[in-house]
Write a structure and sequence with these properties.
mainly beta, four-stranded mixed β-sheet, 2 helices, 9 strands
Length: about 180
């Protein structure tokens, strides 16, 4: 569902305007739970990692096949999540590893259903971090949370890099806010 946090209502696809926007591509390190290393995931929305249910790799990607079925530690959160194989992952985009945030992304929702992953909602109706996020981020607006999450990831050595990235961002046609 497209959610407008300003009006606090769902809006139809017809009310969404997708705009080319200059953003960033953050690369995050997710440590393997067995201590044997880490996997790197690139994302344009690092704050949503607080609701990740898995990391996905393409089923035919030889770089990561050995990781399917293992678990990674979700940085900043007190849980581990599985590494799953899913053919929707674009091997040649980013790191070839995708974080699955089923409740916050259309593509991830489909992957979450296919792999029986939890749908963790971390945003309130007005786009603030709710009680499902770590305490230090609760109550923060999504953009303030983004800055705080990135800063904490950097302090804890989970941030591998941040690069400029042009992307298409969906905005409400009525309010102009990101849906």
């Amino acid at each position: 569902v497209n959610w407008d946090p300003h009006f606090q209502t769902a809006i139809s696809d017809l009310e969404v305007e997708t705009r080319d926007t200059a953003g960033k591509f953050w690369t995050l390190r997710y440590p393997l739970a067995d201590g044997s290393g880490h996997i790197e995931v690139a994302t344009t929305r690092p704050e949503t990692m607080l609701a990740d249910g898995a990391v996905a790799v393409h089923s035919e990607d030889v770089r990561y096949k050995h990781l399917v079925g293992k678990r990674v530690i979700l940085p900043l959160c007190d849980r581990t999540i599985p590494v799953v194989a899913d053919d929707f992952v674009e091997r040649d985009f980013g790191t070839g590893c995708v974080k699955i945030t089923g409740a916050h992304d259309f593509n991830d929702y489909g992957a979450a259903l296919r792999h029986n992953l939890p749908l963790i909602v971390i945003f309130t109706l007005d786009a603030k971090i709710n009680e499902n996020g770590p305490k230090q981020f609760q109550g923060m607006d999504r953009y303030a949370a983004r800055k705080a999450v990135v800063a904490q990831l950097e302090r804890d050595n989970f941030l591998a890099g941040a690069d400029p990235h042009k992307m298409m961002v969906p905005k409400s046609g009525r309010t102009g806010v990101v849906v």
